[in-house]
Amino acid sequence: MQPFPIQRLARTRDNAPPASRRARLAAICAAILIAVTPVSVQAASAAPATPTYNNPIYLNSGLPDPQVIVGEDGYYYLTGTTTSSSVEIIRSASLTDFSGAVRKTVFTPNAPYNKDVWAPELHRLDGKWYIYTTASDLDYATVGNPAVANNRILVLENTAANPLDGTWVSKGQVSGVSTTKGSLDGTVFESGGVRYFMFAYSYNGNHVYIAKMSNPWTLSSEPVEVIKPTLGWEGQWTTEGPAVLVRNGKVFVSYSANDCASDNYSIGLVSANQSSDLLNPASWTKNTQPVMTSNPGAGVFGPGHNSFTTSPDGTEDYIIYHANSAAGQGCGGGRMARVQKMSWNADGSPAFPTPASQNIPTPKWDVGASALVRNGSFERDQKALSAPSQWTSADNNPEAFYTETGGRTGDFKGTQWATQPYRVYTYQRIPNLPTGSYTLTAWVKSSGGQTEASVELKNYAGSSSKKLVAIPQAGDWTRIQISGVNVTAGEATIGFWSNASAGQWLSFDDVQLTPDNYANYTFESDGLGSVPSGWTPDSSGWSVVQAAPNSRQLTTPSNGTGAALAGDSRWTDYAVEATIKFSAINGGGLGLLARVSDTNHFYQLELSRLGSGSLGWDLYKNDGGSWTKLAEGNRNFDPGTPYRLRLAAVGSQLKADISSDNGATWEALGQVNDSSLAAGRIGLRAQGGSTGTFDDVTVRRAEATVAPKLDVQVAARCVTGKVVLAVKATNTDAIPLDVSVATPYGAPPKATIAASKSASSTTNTRLVSVAAGTVNAAISGTRDGVQTTSVVQTPYAALSCG
Q1: Which residue is catalytic, options 121, 185, 240, 526?
Q2: pTM
Q3: What pLDDT digit, counting tens, does each position of 158-184 carry?
């Protein structure tokens, strides 16, 4: 096979980085290639004709007032109103998929202005990062409008290149903005070499003002009112949330009007010529009709407080806005971030899209993209390149890596190949990773026959940490995973390595690093009496209650009927669990939903009163409104005692478990197979008049291919003049593991290692000196009733005892 176009055989790359030699692992024997095949899933994967995405783009919580900026590092940075007490930044390499994104609290204001932290915006100005955020010294949820009257706009500064690094320092309130009127929704733009600040004063309603700036925290002119309610659709009181586009000789400012409590909340537009005096209200012309309004048919209500961003190359424009997914949800946590592409009219004005939720065409440069790996699908550049963006190649032949057509999901893929023997290492460092367990997934093809072809994840727990998997010969796209990697160093590096002869090749695509814990909903930061952030109920009555002085929970409707949904419709194999406590049990029960695609497609596990009248559990499928009982059983429980309930969906396997000690130990309820529903969100459900509370809802990866977690340490030592390999294997998983260790000089007996325990062995090489090499540990275990296997390869250094 010759994946490289024939006309480019002789090409070389200018400005290639210096080749860096590494100590490489020894050739991997055929037995090891066989051993790693259980973590590879072969699949001929045809890309859909038109890849699509769904809104909202971030489902872990509500996110009113969203703003997105693309950084020079290739990541998108999302901010918005999240906790109301701090400023958070959410980072993703994909604009249309923020699932698994890094989320970090970067600043918590000090008193007195440390309440109602709303609408933060992130800007890159004069080589530094700035955040403009609203804050008050009063709590709106407690006192209402007086808190808005006390809103102020704070400025935060960070000198680091990455807004998730460094220290955010408060510059205080924006100087020149009134300290006697409420102010909110600050944003910055430049036109004609002049920097302007736009914001809203909250004084007899919210009106938008503009002023010049002398530096990022100081106004140099008096603010002038340029937008106020004058049209019927705007209502009487509110114009707010300005966002600016400077294009085609004009300044376009979108704004939100009416009331966020109403489904009539909409986006309007004003414009002015760049050559005009932007501080003169007469320079601005207002569109008579809103440019974005509710679209009930698409499940979009009250679109508002938008921002604008671009494709990575700046050639395409996108609008980010919040909206509710159901009517009447108002100003609460149901407002979530959405993104859609914009276009431009023939007269040079922006053409806003109709709000949409489902099957929106994915931008070609974002096809196959995920949150943590930049350009992991090699679509960013939209052309074959010898140096694709975000990836670095090194070793003897860095020029042997390039992109070409023939991708798995999109048009392009990464390839390592050359006309002469070559060694190339292609890698990407992923910074700012929260501590936790992650899985690396890559789809590969390979000619086979290389001295070595492998994928690795390293530096996740320090400079010596590494997990590596050999890539077998594969003519079809084959999935390779390195699972259960415990990241503690705040970063990790993904690498592909080829040590190959002329003409041998390796291709890879859709490279993703994803956290094993998808979501955790504790309700602690949600307002009492409210629908929790990120949840969509199908009926009224779901609300957060104070269960104890330091514990908030989600309570069911008082009539004991209804469901509340959360999470990502793209989730496939996962386990959802929650703590459930009954306050009353009648004819139905309380339970969990999994793989919810809509109100008539889901799996349901519940604790309930069975048809016989006894207490127990049942597992149902709702497929198109048709209910099927998959399993049930008697299981006595105390309605006043909290229980942990878990439903795992792995492929066609559904498994139910219960815990009476908050998840310390689990009791299997039942297991069935059903392949009707493949993916969907999670949910909580009450039925038949049963009421109670839910708490600590967690969703974690639960794939059959998730590898066991084993840490292997190898040291070469001198014992009586001979080299001995000392191996220590520590089970970092929660299940017992069967471990077989193989060294180039023999294999110790197979061992079964209990969870959190270790086993050690030594192998006498009977040699005075040994070269650097690798110890391979083949691992197997049973997780959620599914057999899982993997191989851990650990290098050791050369040693001479002579």
Answers
A1: 240
A2: 0.80
A3: 999 999 999 999 999 999 999 999 999
